[in-house]
Amino acid sequence: MTAPAVRHIRLVTEIPGPRSRALLARRDAAVVAGLGRATPIAIASGQGALVTDVDGNTLIDFVSGIGTLAVGHCPPEVVQAIQAQAEQLIHLSALVGTYEPYVALCERLNALAPISEPCKTLLSNSGAEGVENAIKFARAATGRPAIIVFDGAYHGRTLLTLSLTSRTYFKKKFGPFAPEIYRAPFPYAYRMGMSEAEAVEQCWAAFERMQIAGVDPETVAAVLIEPVQGEGGFIPVPVEFMRRLREFCTRNGSLLIVDEVQSGFGRTGTLFAIEQFGVEPDIIVAAKSIAAGMPLAATIGRARIMDCAHYGGVGGTYGGNPLACVAALATIDLIERERLLERAKVIGQQIRARFEPLLTDDSLDPLVGDVRGLGAMIGIELVKDRRKRTPAAAEEVLAILGRALERGVLAMRAGLYVNCIRLLVPLVITDDQLDEGLEVLIGAMRH
């Protein structure tokens, strides 16, 4: 594929430039050291798939606010909706009274949820808060305490969601953690060194053994799973494994909760990734791309389950803020009008077409070991040795991303071994922008 004629990257200083370095110095002095940052640049503005830093450099964004900007930076329709709402009502709190945007958004989400019975929705501020609400609804509905989660899972950074999250790096010094959380093996076929079918059988045998040696199934309120693991390395759940989880939950009187914080709202080619698995969840948690960057999450579920929480038992001061609600409504309209679900599939195909040939390219260091994902949620796993599947060192992946950044592409890592490159491009990215960004990223892998 030839390089695009029009270049969108525009570099006028080194990366990071002097103004970025100055602002980072201010951040280091004023902001807690524990707040991580993936890059050393400071952004002034963004439009579509492009961002401009405080030094005037324009870069292509392959991160999308960690999957938050499926409709791109500052889409005019969303900006206009926020501006119009800000002139009428900025805040009230759904705990105080009722305002139309909150109700309208819940109605819209209830109708869109891939659940074949009446649904209800609770709005909150973040994915972690949405997951916590899902756990509360599940426990209230079943009267049971236990939650089953999976190796590699990431569900947030509050104390409860850290308890649910797998990777120990995020959990240092923050324990003790919440009780009644039980972790099962996840069918990560590539890292297990076997076929997907074999991985399913091995992990399912462990899941059944867990019910004897780990947790009494009669105490299990819910199974919580990401249809595509995000932080864990962009690993889709095998369809057969998801089907068996649904059967277990139905048979056992437990609920199936899907965490679609990162995979939802068009990222995978359907509004919710679970639509591609042939099963119905009981509760869906959505956030990130739901509102084009405004802080919003939705916990959507079967009405008979969601109404089990006692009056006044759920809610929050800012949950479902009017500005966030109108942003979400405009985002849904934009996804539908611009056919971004179809666009996500095309983007995924284009990314695969560039990276899959690298699976046999021995000139790279580290090597491309696996290319996987759903739709435009694609992960590239880097390894030192393809036969042994030895994970590339975190420093090696950081070096690649650093070179890409210096050349004008913003990208991030993922994976339990932080040896994966996560690609979360805005779905409004043009073909020229995508080609240019991929050219830079692959060039950075070649040094």
Walk me through this protein's architecture.
The chain is an alpha/beta fold and 447 residues long. The protein folds into two domains: 127 residues, Aspartate Aminotransferase, domain 1 (Alpha-Beta Complex); 260 residues, Type I PLP-dependent aspartate aminotransferase-like (Major domain) (Aspartate Aminotransferase, domain 2, 3-Layer(aba) Sandwich), CATH 3.40.640. It has 14 helices and 18 strands. The strands form four sheets. Strands 4-12-11-10-7-5-6 form a seven-stranded mixed beta sheet, sandwiched between helices. Strands 13, 14, 15, 17 and 18 form a five-stranded antiparallel beta sheet that branches. It has a four-stranded mixed beta sheet with strand order 1-2-3-16. Helix 3 runs antiparallel to helix 11, helix 4 packs parallel to helix 11 and helix 13 crosses helix 14. The longest helix has 18 residues. The chain is globular, with a radius of gyration of 22 Å. 50% of the residues are buried.
